[in-house]
Design brief:
This protein has nine helices and 15 strands. With 323 residues, the chain is α/β, with parallel strands linked by helices. The strands form three sheets. Strands 3, 4, 5, 6, 7, 14 and 15 form a seven-stranded mixed sheet that branches. A six-stranded parallel sheet has the order 10-9-8-11-12-13. The chain has a two-stranded antiparallel sheet with strand order 1-2. It is globular. Bound molecules: NADP nicotinamide-adenine-dinucleotide phosphate.
Length: 323
């Protein structure tokens, strides 16, 4: 099978397509023929070995697993002897990051727990765009943020994967939603329904005098205390990710700020694939639809990882392996 092979840490554009042997599923694994995959922050970090902290997970001097990719949709072609959840021919999708990486390839053998059944009315391209970003948005807004009807909400990093799902979830609660991002994405953000848009390169939303009931942050671009000014009394701030420095500051200061003020500062640790049944339902009812950048061809993955890392995409960057 063909795979995007990462033998050493380097710029994504140096990645090569290589012929490798098709894996054989172990007892609890299924062999999936991959139909579509997507690019994520982990891929950008994993192939470059940056930030350095990632090397503690991915390998100190070179990647332990030479194939990146953590979201996929596809069809099960073979199953291990102890597999109970699926049968050959099932169409599946999922965020596989809890069990490994390797979706930038024709096939993957992965623990059955990493996958769920794909609804029939969901395309393979939509399915691969959903698990990671939709659940960061859902778990962030609904489970951590306890979003309420009619709230005033701000999404920081609003044009990316998480933001474009978060907008749709917030709109189900009739929220008034402001999105913060930059560049060409701002036009797309208007088109998909943000009520107000702020270009973070021109304006700092924390000091413009507006206050929000709930802030969902995919970037944590400022120190924790900066957000105090942008929250209403009893407002909540939920971060799903961002720069290591600001996340460390967040870890050190969020507890204290939550105790000393009437505002809450919360960090989401994603539970991969937890809640996909709800997302499937919302998709089938037409309430949620991924914003897809692409679909692109398999050969383009190295270029696309760079494109993703430079933040040029809107929504989810999707690759269709049969293109
Ligand atoms: N909590 C968890 O358990 C968990 C697990 C996995 C991943 N994550 C994190 O979840 C996040 C995933 O977000 P995503 O998929 O939506 O990423 P994404 O698609 O890269 O979107 C992030 C957006 O933020 C924009 N941005 C960059 N700097 C900004 C700033 N200073 N202010 C406002 N916006 C800014 C980017 O645009 P430009 O780059 O063009 O500026 C981009 O459009 C990542 O931070 C990832 O590390 C969390």
């Amino acid at each position: 099978m063909k795979a995007i092979f990462c033998s050493h840490y380097a710029s994504p554009e140096q990645l090569k397509i290589k012929e490798v042997s098709t894996p054989v599923p172990a007892k609890h694994e299924v062999l999936v023929k991959i139909h579509a995959t997507a690019i994520n922050d982990y891929d950008w970090g994993m192939v470059r070995g940056k930030p350095f902290l990632y090397r503690l997970i991915f390998g100190l001097t070179k990647p332990k697993r030479p194939i990146a990719g953590m979201e996929l949709s596809g069809v099960i072609e073979d199953i291990g002897e102890d597999v109970t959840k699926f049968k050959k021919g099932d169409a599946v999708y999922g965020d596989i990051s809890e069990f490994g990486f390797g979706s930038f390839a024709d096939y993957i053998a992965i623990n059955e727990k990493a996958l769920v059944l794909k609804p029939e009315d969901m395309s393979f391209e939509d399915a691969t765009a959903i698990p990671h970003a939709a659940l960061l948005a859902y778990q962030g807004l609904v489970e951590k943020g306890k979003i309420q009807k009619g709230q005033k909400i701000l999404i920081n990093g609003a044009g990316g994967g998480v933001g474009t799902f978060a907008l749709q979830i917030a709109k189900m609660y009739d929220a008034e939603v402001t999105g913060v991002d930059t560049g060409e994405k701002l036009n797309n953000m208007k088109a998909i329904g943000y009520d107000e848009i702020i270009d973070y390169k021109k304006e700092n939303f924390t000091i413009r005098g507006e206050r929000y009931d709930l802030i969902l942050d995919a970037k944590t671009s400022q120190p924790t205390w900066a957000y105090l000014k942008a929250l209403k009394p009893k407002g909540k701030y939920v971060t799903v990710g961002g720069t290591a420095g600001n996340l460390i500051l967040f870890g050190l200061s969020s507890g204290l700020l939550s105790v000393l003020t009437s505002k809450k500062f919360l960090l989401l640790a994603l539970q991969p694939n937890q809640g996909l049944d709800t997302i499937n339902q919302l998709y089938t009812e037409g309430k949620i639809k991924p914003t897809i950048d692409g679909p692109y061809k398999f050969e383009e993955i190295p270029r696309l990882i760079q494109y993703f890392g430079e933040g040029k995409h809107t929504g989810k960057v999707v690759i269709n392996l049969s293109k």
